[in-house]
Amino acid sequence: MNTTVAALPDxxxxxxxxxxxLFHRYWHVITPLRYxxxxxxxxxxxxxxxxxxxxxDGTELAISSNGSLPTDPxxxxxxxxxxxxxxxxxxxxxLYDSSPGGSQSHHGASLVPMFARIxxxxxxxxxxxxxxxxxxxxxxxxxxxxxxxxxTPGVAVARYFEWCQxxxxxxxxxxxxxxxxxxxxxxxxFERDGYVVTVRVTRSND
Length: 206
Hints:
Layout: H1 17-25, H2 27-35, E1 40-43, E2 50-54, E3 59-64, E4 80-85, E5 92-97, H3 111-119, E6 130-137, E7 143-147, H4 153-169, E8 174-178, E9 187-192, E10 195-203
Antiparallel strand pairs: 1-2, 2-3, 3-4, 4-5, 6-7, 6-10, 8-9, 9-10
Helix pairs in contact: 2-4, 3-4
């Protein structure tokens, strides 16, 4: 079992169809938060949707977009991140805002800049360093590797999801396999016309 990722939230909404739909559609945002060691949930009350991550110090992150999260992540134009008191959400500070008109709006819906800011928080979080890499394999047996240096868990896992999205949306690959979460760090295999790309997250030697 993968013990490097935080547990799922403990409540009776885990079987609610709306909660399940949002939790899985925003998996690319929730998973990096869980790799930082924070129990992460989707708030669906009152028709307002946002992601909440318990920082373990009496505060939480509340991640939305330009208002409530849309049901389709493709409609997200930017991210709005608050750090707020769990007991009194009116006590909050804006941590990051890449929504239209926000101070980081030039980043749009990109995950990596948001997680770079989140990872810099001075709170208890996973201290491991991870690396995201990919192996490109041709039909005639040549391989090419691309990899980066060690990064904090949130940034590395966010980079994995952005790499995977780029392969499917910009380069025309299709995902043919992905490692189940319980079996270890993220890993996925993509194929296009006999070309294969494997994207993975591993422990860093940096």
